[in-house]
Structures are given as structure tokens and as C-alpha cells.
């Protein structure tokens, strides 16, 4: 496969991953599907860092657009375009890393929830809650906040890992494209 086609494949794969990251982060703002927790400020801090919107979303989506254009004939499909795709892919790597770190912290610290009458993070710095669902009952409000947070932060971690791999691959692909050309078929004279 030539570097231009590889760039297009990477970009097309990055699009849904960026959208998934953005959606996951937005949904995290509404635990139990209610707005009142966000209005009252009872949202986990890692959600407010917007790793899925900024990191795994915008910082990956913008490079994906450029990487996609790099692979098209007649639009940046040259050595300079491939060189620029390395820089854009590096931005994507940074965004994916940011999203990965925020999601890992979200899982490590656990959700902000009401325990008896106090809002706290009862599982902070303890990962026992990830495997022992009997501990989840400590959170009385929002309803089912622990599996909600685990599911969405885990999804963010998986998507950001995939984004990281794809953007790093594009950096290598861009280097080959810059050195060797994009090998897009040109009309052969008869």
C-alpha cells in the first residue's frame, strides 16, 4: 500500500474515533441522564478537563482532516504535504495522550457521588472498586454512577489508545511519504 492510500485509511479510521470521544465526554456531563448534577457542580473533575472533547476530539479531528487531504491526488499529495502530515499527526498524538491520561485519572479517582449526605470521591486512589461491584452501593446519588463512569472512561481510554497508535503510524507513514513520495498513480505516456 502506498503512503497516500495509507494516510486516507488512517484518517477515515480517526473520524469515528474522534466522534466517539466527543460523545462520551458530553454524556459524562449528564450522569443518570439528568442536568441537575451539572448545574449543581456535582460532576467528576476529570469530566471538566474535557479530555474527550478537546484531546481525543478536536485535537484528533483537525489532524485527521489534513491527513485525509494528504492522501488525495492533487490536494497536498506531495512530499511537503506528507511532511506537514507528520506535524499534524504529532498534534493528534498529543491530543490522544491527553485524553488517555484524563480517562485513566477518571478511572483511578472514581466518580464524584453522594455518600450519605456528603458529595465526595469515595474511591479516590483505590482501584478495588473497578472489580468489586459490592462497593458501588456506597454511592447513593446519582443513580448507577459507578458503572456509568467506568463504561464511559473505559471507552475513552480505548479510543484514545487507538488514536495514539493511528497518529503515531501516520507520523511514520508521513516520514516515508516525505522521503519517497506518495506513489499516487500518475498518467503514464503511451
What's the structural blueprint in terms of helices and strands?
Blueprint: H1 3-28, H2 36-39, H3 45-48, H4 51-70, H5 79-109, E1 113-115, E2 118-120, H6 128-131, H7 145-180
Antiparallel strand pairs: 1-2
Helix pairs in contact: 1-4, 1-7, 4-5, 4-7, 5-7
**Percentage of residues assigned to helices:** 55-70%
Element-by-element helix/strand order: HHHHHEEHH
User: Poorly predicted ranges (pLDDT <50, ≥5 residues)?
Assistant: none
Question: What topology, given as strand order, has the largest sheet?
Answer: 1-2
Query: CA-to-CA gap between the ends?
Result: 25 Å
Shape: elongated
How many helical elements? Answer: 7
Give the rounded overall mean pLDDT. 89
Oligomer state of the chains in this structure = single chain
Largest sheet: 2 strands, antiparallel
Structural class: mainly alpha
Strand proportion, as a percent range, falls in under 5%
Q: What is the CA-atom radius of gyration, in angstroms? A: 21 Å
The number of distinct β-strands equals: 2
Defining key terms:
single chain; 190 residues; mainly alpha; two-stranded antiparallel ribbon; elongated
Amino acid at each position: 500500500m502506498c503512503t497516500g492510500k495509507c494516510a486516507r485509511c488512517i484518517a477515515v479510521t480517526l473520524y469515528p474515533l474522534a466522534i466517539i470521544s466527543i460523545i462520551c465526554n458530553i454524556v459524562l456531563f449528564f450522569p443518570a441522564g439528568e442536568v441537575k448534577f451539572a448545574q449543581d457542580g456535582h460532576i467528576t473533575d476529570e469530566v471538566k478537563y474535557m479530555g474527550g472533547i478537546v484531546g481525543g476530539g478536536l485535537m484528533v479531528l483537525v489532524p485527521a482532516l489534513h491527513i485525509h487531504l494528504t492522501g488525495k491526488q492533487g490536494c497536498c499529495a506531495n512530499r511537503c504535504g506528507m511532511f506537514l502530515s507528520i506535524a499534524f499527526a504529532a498534534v493528534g498524538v498529543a491530543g490522544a495522550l491527553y485524553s488517555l491520561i484524563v480517562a485513566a485519572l477518571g478511572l483511578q479517582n472514581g466518580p464524584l457521588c453522594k455518600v450519605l449526605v456528603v458529595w465526595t470521591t469515595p474511591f479516590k486512589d483505590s482501584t478495588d472498586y473497578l472489580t468489586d461491584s459490592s462497593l458501588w452501593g456506597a454511592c447513593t446519588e446519582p443513580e448507577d454512577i459507578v458503572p456509568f463512569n467506568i463504561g464511559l472512561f473505559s471507552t475513552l481510554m480505548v479510543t484514545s489508545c487507538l488514536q495514539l497508535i493511528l497518529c503515531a503510524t501516520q507520523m511514520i507513514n508521513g516520514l516515508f511519504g516525505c522521503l519517497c513520495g506518495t506513489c499516487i498513480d500518475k498518467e503514464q505516456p503511451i
